Request: fold
Amino acid sequence: MRTLKRLHAAVREDIGELITRRPLPGPGIGQLDPFLLLNHHGPQVYPPGNAGLPFGPHPHRGFETVTFILHGQLEHRDSGGHESVIGAGGVQWMTAGRGVVHSELAPREFLERGGELEILQLWVNLPARMKMTEPRYSGLQAADIPAVTHDGAIVRPVSGEWLGQVGPIRPLMDVQLATVHLARGATARFAVPRGRTVLLYVVGGELRIDAHHAPRFTLVELNDDGDEFVLQAHEDSTVLLGHAAPLDEPVVAYGPFVMNTREEIHQAIRDYQAGRLG
Ligand code: MN
Reply:
């Protein structure tokens, strides 16, 4: 059984009107290799006639962004010509690779009518050999993502195999991600082989793991000392769950660029300024 290493409460850092919590990185944790960053926007209710989200056109290079739309809608447009509006329960998986410029905004309908909004965005690193890969994008609606019931938990696999069900995204790297809903009182066991980093974030509710309580907005860091763990739900709970092999490479990050060296960061900035990111 994997034991608990540390609980990390997300740090609140709103962006204008957008409620934002950041469980990763945080004061006690730099990265969970290869998981670099997790932002939790909302939950909140936007009024009719709102100004929407603050994520107009901006670049990325060297990693992937995986965005889970829990409530509301998110419109994605990028320099590769991809455009989609994804609703609640859907996922956007973007490989920035050698470079992309994109916007992540509320669609017009949401600006006019308002509504609930809750979004998770995860940054997943790419290894040196794939940082300059061709950009790609997949937008999945809720209906594209299967659901498997397991010990009182509903697991929705996005990538990788979960309980015999394969998620619809076939990622470049072996990154396995799912959302999990546990009903109050449920106890669910998950297997993750040793050597892989576990990403476990309590989006809502409250869990018990390895005799510790993890309330909502907590990143649970586990030791690599077993090949399974058990989650018990004290309340109806929602969890972002993932695992991947660590890259064990140097990380040099500057804003929206994540590379291996400072020189590669300088090159990314020059390429962006010269319009070579899209
Ligand atoms: Mn972005």
Q: What stands out?
A: Residues 4-273 form a domain with the Jelly Rolls fold (CATH 2.60.120.10). The longest strand covers residues 35-46. Helices lie at 108-113, 262-273.
